[in-house]
Fold:
Amino acid sequence: MRLTSLNLFEKWAVGPLFIYGGVMAQSTTNLAQLIEPVVSALGYELVAIEYRRGTRSSLLRLYIDRPEGVGLADCTRVSHQVSGVLDVEEPIAGQYTLEVSSPGLDRLLVKPQDFQRFAGQLVKVRLHGLLEGRRKIVGVLKGVEQDLVVVEEEGKEWRLALHDIDQARLVPNP
Structure:
């Protein structure tokens, strides 16, 4: 299955949504509206929601973070709370597996605040279309200026509209 990301930068207050296998965007947005308050109340940031519909069982994966990082105990805590809400509300038909994870070293950047927060770090950006014949840019994230993500690559500054970015990730230090 091909991963497709929704561009919800202007409307999205939680984080990115990733849609697998033709899941309707509206239903995943509803999941975020249901899950985000629970995660926030526990003191975490909901970075991303990933939903993969399967023929027998589906997968719902949440990525959470906080300034001091996320460990196994944090993921377990969030999983128990979110699981309770999902059991009561039943937003997903059929069987599914709930996974809670940290965003990892190659964290996704989605919201304008993400791009500002991680300014100065190395990023890999994949665009929806071509820009000067390029689809991928790897460089130092400079931040956000008037809804444009600024990335410096080998002395050249790229100004990328948020809606043109298919995916942006931090590049872990070797």
Summary: The radius of gyration is 17 Å. The CA atoms of residues 63 and 101 lie 5 Å apart. The first strand starts at residue 4 and ends at 5. Residues 1-26 have pLDDT under 50 and may be disordered.
